[in-house]
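User: Modeling request: complex.
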Amino acid sequence: MAWDNTSVFADDSVEDRDFRAEVRAWVLANCPPELVGRAAHPTPAELKPWHRRLFERGWIAPHWPREHGGMGATLAQQLILWEEITRLEAPTPLSHGLNLIGPIIIEVGTPEQKAQHLPRILSGEITWCQGYSEEGAGSDLASLATSAALDDDHFVVKGHKIWTTQGQHADWMFALVRTDPDAKPRHAGISMLLIDMKSPGVSVRPIETLRGDAEFAMEFFDDVRVPRANLLGEMNGGWRLANMVLGAERMVTGHPRTAANLLNRVRDVAKLTGAADDPAFRQRLAAIEIEMLAFSAYFRHGAALHMAKRAPNSLAPVLKIVGGELAQRAAELLVEAGGARGPMADDWLIGNASVNLPHALFESRRFTVGAGSVEIQRNVIAKRVLGLPSS
Amino acid sequence: MDLLLSEQQSQMRDGAARLLRDVAGPQRLRRLMASGRARDDEAWRAVAAAGWAGALVPERFGGTGLGTLELALFHEEAGKHLAATPLAAAASAASCIAACGNASLRARWLGDCIAGAKIVVPALGGAGLGYGTDGVLPRLRDGAVPLLDGAHSFVPFAATADAFLVAAERGGATVLGLAAPDAVGVAITTVRNVDGTSSSDIAFAATPVEIVADGSTAERAIAAMQAATVLAASAELIGIAAAVHAMALDHIKTRRQFGQAIGSFQAIQHRAVDAFVAVELSRSLLARVCVERDRGNADAAMIAAVKAKSSRSALDVVRFGLQMHGAMGYAEEHEIGLYWKRALVLSALYGGDANHLLRFSQLSWAET
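Assistant: Request completed. Predicted assembly structure:
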């Protein structure tokens, strides 16, 4: 199988087919060559010129309403843009602002917050990071302890955040902080604050990953004063905002494209090493590809239901579980396809692309851990979908 | 997830569910097995009376002109209700007679097939559709009356068939012929399966047959019948998986140990979720491939993927269900065992997970 966005279970309407062709051609012509094949975490500085081009083309925020500078695009068009960029294993534009905090600001922000932040998210001038996890609060996010105490017209923030993707580069952080230490249940005492990372008292320490680069960071807040006007939404209403998965974000976290790119690479590498001639290897690949086919069908089915406003509660967690685990298995098979050269530290040259197999594998760890581990997703389905009782 | 069905498709599925609640189910299956009868004639008459036997026959030939998706909707319900109905075999054979047969053949067979008065069963074989099916087709000798030599293995519903549509080979080209079970030289050896169904080896020795189609027409007709029967078996497997999953959920919500429902334990919850995901993905894949098939887009690799995935999922989900039921799952008295037995038969029918995995692999590498 060659996994292309149009080769398996394409659902594009006639107009969408034209749009996809237009996007494909434009992305090929405009995506900076140094970013092609580099989906994994370029720095914001490397990403900004690409972000800027999409912004100038008017394609930066397909999922945002027009009144806020977005395209007001259909979900199908949103997916097309995302799929055609990721098809080249190129990075999508600065996503924390566009996909995570931007939509929440649009939903609940004050007019001042919208005016201050939305244009700068669109232009890429300001980059954002997400301050959720803490050392003692990972899967059990509601136990977070970083406190924000009101002092007149300011919050005084004290504590730390960790595993913050691109935290060392971000200009602003949207953070979950504890504004009521006595709240029961605990998540009822959490608020969302927008924090300028240049504020006095903020210090940042990059964290190196297995791949050897600093993809995320740890931030310390030492009595950082944050204007009360930077409270997003209601006081103690942060939990609801953090759980708002808006628009296409639900459909791209766990999109089959991630696994598809890896499986295409598996075939490339298998042909080079001879794994492609090994029946045992081919059987294992076939097993994953059949899962991939099933997942692609499920994804298109879910997207169609989403567009018909009939998506079930199970859709987002199933996408995360299957998309994550499948991509991870594909990454594992990629290294195996390399045989004795699989664990090589240097890149492989495949056509014009250079691919680092272990890095692809290391990168895949995040698929089953980030944004709610697959175990937490299973708990969610057990309770909310299958109606199983709590212990 | 809900399938994206038209109003008419939803009604057909609901109608099939109501029908099968009446003429199938665990108790009825037990009675049928105890009686030693090979087929539930009353159930088949009810299925045919509802118009299903002509589902794949175009309306201009008196059928209802439906597609593989509708057939799959019926068979998922059949799986849920343990109905071992020959519908997919009979409906795809009727469709083949309508598409390929000459006026005389149609006049003699089609009306009875659509009414359910006669059941024609495809005997196609084919490489990659299970161990012992090597793709060697019976050979047809030309003559005033063409004569057939050879055999087909593992043909379901053959024991009670009124005729066979036989895939054969003549001078290197594929032909499709109609043979009567009581014709000269036909020897049928039937093996009873653990779930009450049966499967037969059919041997032909200088058996006279009537040619229905040859060349590429025959190949297309064979592929269409294989697709319909394989997809229908997959749909039944998914129905079984869905029924067993529901049964297991009911059980773990009510069965109490250590002072609480066992469904409150995370070890059990996560297995229940994985079983749920297996059913969801299998059903989406099946439905999608049926839709593609009905649009003329589904290739053989996709159909192989469906059978591999649904066979694996059904066995996995049934294993989960059995485990949840503890010792009860090992007791003949509990109906979950009936579902397991049916899943074993259907997952092996037309080739199982391993066979279709290999087939998918061969087809998908051949593409590139």
